[in-house]
């Protein structure tokens, strides 16, 4: 007997019917846990803290805190930090950069559960022109970026409890 795609699908149907979607609460809990893990990694690096409101000449491209964080704004902010940390070529921030990629994926899952159109955010468009600033002050850039990232992540953690919009 010859079995086509329909027969194969019907044969797999009992297995497919037992697969359940990941509960959105689990995704939100995983997102919060990953944020806490990243904050802990930043604390372990133990650079001197810089206030998120403090201005450092030449490093204005590093985002500070935003008053209202939607899921798309969170993703955009994380994309910028990921781009900055990747360009630093520091052993200290490689894992944090990877964690930011995973966190962005979790934010996309949260957005899709709310039927939010969340396109993949890009980092800074004029980032190539900042190469000289980064090379001249790698340590300062790392300190400021990690300090502001930590403040942004703690704010995101609080916002996730309030169920942010698209």
Automatic annotation (TrEMBL):
Q: Could you say which residues form the signal peptide?
A: 1-21
Q: Which PANTHER family match?
A: LEPTIN
Family under the similarity heading: Belongs to the leptin family.
Q: Which InterPro entries match?
A: 4_helix_cytokine-like_core, Leptin
Upper taxonomic lineage: Eukaryota, Metazoa, Chordata, Craniata, Vertebrata
- Which Pfam families does the record associate with it? Leptin
The keyword NAD belongs to this UniProt entry's keyword annotation: no
Its GO CC terms are: extracellular space
Role of this protein: Key player in the regulation of energy balance and body weight control. Once released into the circulation, has central and peripheral effects by binding LEPR, found in many tissues, which results in the activation of several major signaling pathways. In the hypothalamus, acts as an appetite-regulating factor that induces a decrease in food intake and an increase in energy consumption by inducing anorexinogenic factors and suppressing orexigenic neuropeptides, also regulates bone mass and secretion of hypothalamo-pituitary-adrenal hormones.
Question: Which superkingdom heads the taxonomic lineage of this protein's source?
Answer: Eukaryota
- Give the record's keywords alphabetically: Disulfide bond, Secreted, Signal
Q: Which GO terms describe its biological process?
A: energy reserve metabolic process; lipid metabolic process; negative regulation of appetite by leptin-mediated signaling pathway; positive regulation of p38MAPK cascade; positive regulation of phosphatidylinositol 3-kinase/protein kinase B signal transduction; positive regulation of receptor signaling pathway via JAK-STAT; positive regulation of TOR signaling; response to insulin
Q: What is this protein called?
A: Leptin
**GO molecular function terms noted in the UniProt entry:** hormone activity; peptide hormone receptor binding
